[in-house]
Specification:
Shape of chain B: globular
Largest sheet of chain A: 5 strands, parallel
CATH topology of the largest domain in chain A: FAD/NAD(P)-binding domain
Helix content of chain A: 25-40%
Number of helices of chain B: 13
Shape of chain A: globular
CATH architecture of the largest domain in chain A: 3-Layer(bba) Sandwich
Strand content of chain A: 15-25%
Largest sheet of chain B: 8 strands, parallel, barrel
Number of domains of chain A: 3
Helix content of chain B: 40-55%
CATH topology of chain B: TIM Barrel
CATH superfamily of chain B: Aldolase class I
Oligomer: heterodimer
CATH class of chain B: Alpha Beta
Number of strands of chain A: 15
Radius of gyration of chain B: 21 Å
Chain lengths: 495, 329
């Protein structure tokens, strides 16, 4: 079997790639500035939860940006991609104006290119490994923007290319949960020829892509389009189906399912367990975002409205915190404040999200940490007490740790507080499986090479394994699990 | 009928022998054995904030890639939840296993975290809380006043927020020990235990390596708490429990005579097991009967600073009589 690097080399030597490389001198390529993404105006976009902030590239912008790519002999960008997308190939297709071919290349590796093009932290992954970043200390080729462009172009062209699938082998497998890891798993397993069903507990497919990420960052229609693609490939979706309650694993086995991929995510919000956290008006970002994103609580006729604070504090510095605080602004808050115990430099949120939040008038109260919520006479949250912090030495993760400034405590007025400090795996599914090896933090323990659990026919990936992961890492897990499950079932059934 | 009853932790204890916080009191079988052998109360192994920090560092070392930043950002809270939940289970199980009061012991190094720890151990059913307070004075930038404020703020904050009795266990590392105890006493504490005992470094001269010294106390160490029980018990409203180096009934009786209301013991039980509790209690009873004392109150504090015939010995620091002749020769 030819290895991937050999294939890449052969593809790079194809006539059209050589011709394209020769069409522009490297000196001219590196002289080009990275494209700027067009964005909706801050004052306009904060009026709507569904107004997408990033507007995408035009074809000219995309081709120009793609021409910055040097088509390196050793494309290190691929090393930075958890699903090993053939980045130079799709980028060069864009440079050559072959946008549908670029989209087809993406689909060979990713079930969700339009999603990844929007929400992946490329600056920490493929773009961090780009020649420009590594060797020239310049802005990386905008691989994420180009990925989005190719996927959007295909969708808007109406010429949807459904990836080829192998002949059905009649072996049934199930994915539990319908987030990125399960969808990625399902996309590969259906290509291998399996009969794939995705079981989702909620009334919408998409998992965290739907309930977690607001539409101003990832429109639901984009997710639905990618799902439709999987449907057309033959993946079955079962909504409102709680594995372990609606049916047990034994029930599913009796129905013929031979192996399972658990990608049920981490839907259990973490709290700080500080006094007052149970007051009315203090809630998790999971609840807040799910109500808005999935149950349309932002709409005036919603059956399940959400509290609309005038002064909203969101605790945390990650992407979820940014999503929640920006959502609160769109729901009419006069003050929306991020409370974060480190400084801006240590914030784990994408720089782009922080920048967008700042543009939208989000206030940042860094180096502060809640220690108590205080109630008004009605028992609703009215203030949060904050411990001022300073930065100490770097901890084991390499980031400077927050240190208490003793005695420096302040109070601020709030009428809604949203806690966005992380999530834990939902314990329901692991609790249904006797003999499933778990970590002390409630994650499923798997062989990292195969994603196989302590129960041979159970594989797992995404947040239920990692505790918290990016969309693309979860997708990488799904792909790896699909490959391993395929090997496992081939041996078992002589496929 | 001889009564051994005393008061500490805001509770009436059937005798003054308290099992001090140690790894022994994290073991349910041993907790039951201490109770069955007649201990007056049991202080559970401390839950340390430092353990949480160490575990965080261990997890973080395996997740240094930047895509784990969001996952790790508040992971210390997750670890803390788990540690406190586990400690809560220990409290509940210990309460079921023991017939005597079960006291939670907490040690934090961040001022803001004590309250949360205290609230959770109260919710778990602890009969009282011992705040295991210490700051080792090796930070050259930290002033005594900083420490003083830390101790007082912590005690004040916790005492005002929890309903169960609160005591503190302090170290002897104070330049103004009497003064700080006096101020702590003003915070309506249910007792002060003096002193907590730290692990100490030692040096292996063969391997030329710094090692941890034996963690168990020796008998001579009881003289330090004896001095301070004698000096402070008449001056404080709250009761004192003496701790460190107390290994037998004789040591316990000395502490009670100096004015302590109770003693906390651990090291000797590593050597002699929980059954030694009954032996010590029997020793105290026998001594009281021999002396004709019917209750602890009949003799407690009889040899404290204010009642002893030669109180100056409590406050003397130099070996004047021992070495006076030597110096002059």
């Amino acid at each position: 079997m030819t290895d991937y690097s050999e294939i890449l080399k052969q593809e790079r030597n194809a006539d059209w790639r050589v011709e394209l490389r020769n069409s522009l001198a490297n000196k001219e390529r590196v002289a080009l500035e990275r494209v700027k993404m067009t964005e909706a105006e801050p004052l306009e976009r904060i009026k709507s939860q569904t107004c997408e902030v990033n507007r995408g590239l035009t074809a000219d912008e995309a081709r120009r940006e793609a021409s910055r790519c040097m088509d390196c002999v050793t494309p290190t960008c691929i090393e930075g991609c958890p699903v090993s997308i053939n980045i130079p190939k799709f980028v060069k297709y864009i440079e050559g104006g072959k946008f549908l071919e670029a989209a087809a290349t993406l689909k060979e590796f990713s079930a969700l290119p339009a999603v990844c093009g929007r929400v992946c932290p490329q600056e920490k992954q493929c773009e961090a490994k780009c020649f420009y970043t590594q060797k020239m200390k310049k802005d990386a080729v905008a691989i994420g923007y180009l990925e989005r462009f190719a996927a959007d172009f295909e969708r808007n062209s109406g010429k949807i290319q459904v990836p080829k699938v192998e002949k059905r082998n009649r072996v049934k497998v199930a994915a539990i949960g319908s987030g990125p890891s399960s969808l990625s798993f399902a996309g590969d397993m259906i290509k291998f020829g399996y009969d794939v069903t995705v079981f989702e507990a909620l009334h919408e497919i998409g998992g965290v892509l739907k309930y977690g990420i607001p539409e101003f960052r990832l429109p639901n229609a984009i997710v639905d389009f990618e799902l439709e693609n999987l449907r057309q490939m033959g993946v079955n979706f079962e909504k409102n189906f709680v594995v372990g309650r609606t049916a047990s694993f034994e029930d599913l086995k009796e129905l013929g399912y031979q192996a399972f991929f658990i990608g049920s995510g981490a839907g259990l919000p973490n709290f700080m367990n500080i006094p007052g956290e149970n007051l009315n008006g203090v809630m998790s970002s999971n609840e807040y975002l799910t109500r808005v994103n999935l149950m349309y609580a932002n709409q005036s006729d919603s059956d399940t409205p959400v509290l609309r604070g005038k002064c909203v504090a969101v605790v945390g510095g990650g992407n979820t915190a940014m999503d929640a605080v920006r959502t609160s602004k769109r729901l009419g808050a006069e003050r929306s404040i991020i409370i974060y115990r480190r400084s801006r430099e240590e914030m784990p949120a994408r720089l782009e999200e922080i920048k967008h939040a700042e543009e939208e008038g989000i206030e940042f109260m860094n180096l502060a940490n809640p220690i108590e919520y205080l109630a008004n006479k009605e028992g609703r949250v009215s203030k949060v007490r904050l411990q001022r912090m300073k930065l100490g030495e770097p901890d084991a993760s390499g980031r400077r740790k927050p240190v208490v400034i003793e005695g420096d405590i302040v109070e601020i007025d709030v009428d809604l507080a949203i806690v966005a400090i992380g999530v834990s795996p939902n314990p329901l599914i692991p609790a249904c499986l006797k003999g499933l090896k778990m970590s002390k933090y409630g994650t499923i323990e798997v062989n990292e090479q195969t994603m196989q659990s302590s129960i041979p026919e159970i594989f797992a990936g995404g947040d239920i394994v990692r505790g918290g992961a990016t969309v693309i890492l979860a997708m990488g897990d799904g792909r790896k699990a699909a490959g391993s499950m395929h090997d496992f079932l081939k041996k078992k059934y002589n496929l | 009928m001889t009564s051994l009853k005393t008061r500490f932790f805001g509770l009436e204890l059937k005798n003054p022998l308290i099992i001090a916080s140690s790894s022994l009191t994290a073991d349910l079988d041993k907790i039951k054995a201490f109770s069955d052998n007649g201990a007056g109360a049991i202080v559970l192994k401390s839950v340390f904030e430092e353990e949480i920090i160490n575990e965080y560092h261990q997890v973080a070392q395996n997740k240094v890639e930047s895509h784990f930043d969001e996952f790790m950002d508040y992971f210390d809270y997750k670890i803390r939840d788990q540690v406190l939940a586990s400690y809560g289970r220990l409290i509940k199980s210990a309460k079921e296993a023991s017939k005597v009061p079960v006291v939670a012991s907490i040690n934090c190094i961040s001022a803001g975290d004590w309250l949360q720890f205290a609230s959770q151990v109260q919710d778990a059913g602890a009969d009282a809380i011992e705040l295991n307070l210490f700051i080792m004075p090796f930070n050259p930038n930290r002033k005594a006043e900083d420490n003083r404020r830390f101790y007082l703020d912590t005690v004040r904050e916790v005492s005002s927020r929890v309903k169960i009795p609160v005591t503190v266990k302090i170290s002897s590392y104070f330049s103004d020990l009497a003064s700080i105890c006096h101020e702590l006493d003003g915070e309506k504490l249910a007792g002060i235990t003096m002193f907590n005992r730290f692990s100490s470094p030692d040096i292996d001269i063969d391997k030329e390596k710094v090692i941890t010294a034996s963690t168990l106390s020796n008998e001579n160490e009881h003289l330090l708490p004896l001095r301070w029980a004698g000096i402070l018990s008449p001056r404080l409203k709250c009761p004192i429990a003496a701790s460190t180096g107390i290994h037998n009934a004789t040591h316990m009786i000395k502490m009670l005579l100096a004015g302590a209301s109770a003693v906390q013991m651990a090291s000797v039980f590593y050597k002699k097991g929980p059954a030694h509790v009954a032996e010590i209690i029997a020793g105290l009873t026998t001594w009281m009967e021999k002396k004709g004392y019917e209750s602890i109150g009949d003799f407690r504090g009889h040899l404290s600073l204010t009642k002893a015939a030669n109180p100056a010995l409590f406050e003397r620091a130099q070996y004047l009589s021992n070495f006076g002749g030597y110096a002059g020769s």
